[in-house]
């Protein structure tokens, strides 16, 4: 079993009643689909963090490493390389992959929408 590595938006758990429910569900689905779109720009590909989650950025590939910052809701990140580490369970499954997003900064891949399981970037040295 993996370790959870996030904080969830309390508003994401709110459900509406009656006829508003269908509208709210449709809006939430559209928002979630837009949020998981991988973005490619001139500066490179950026991958979205799972909608409704704020993810801790750590100094290494595991939850025992120091937190250096927390990504805001809706953040899209570059992935320069990936490294195996602690197994973590998130909205995109359970994985031991950690994504290097800056020098000495890693996030659990289980919280990043890459469009596939496994490596999508070179292995970190």
Write the layout of secondary structure elements.
Blueprint: E1 7-8, H1 19-35, E2 39-41, E3 44-48, E4 53-54, E5 56-58, E6 67-70, E7 76-77, E8 81-90, E9 93-102, E10 105-108
Antiparallel strand pairs: 1-4, 2-3, 3-7, 5-6, 8-9, 9-10
Would you write up a description of this structure?
- The chain contains one helix and ten strands, in the order βαβββββββββ.
- By secondary structure, it is mainly beta.
- The two termini are 27 Å apart.
Short description:
This protein has 125 residues and is mainly β. It is 14% helix and 36% strand.
- Major beta sheet, strand line-up: 2-3-7
Q: Which sequence of SSEs, written as H and E, runs from N to C?
A: EHEEEEEEEEE
Count of alpha/pi helices? 1
Using only CA atoms, what is the Rg? 15 Å
Mass-distribution shape: globular
Major pleated sheet: 3 strands, antiparallel
Runs in which pLDDT lies below 50 for 5 or more consecutive residues are: 10-35
Multimeric organization: single chain
Strand content: 35-45%
Strands, count: 10
Mean pLDDT: 80
Q: What structural category characterises the helix and strand content? A: mainly beta
Distance between the termini: 27 Å
Helix content: 10-25%
List keywords for this structure.
mainly beta; 125 residues; 1 helix
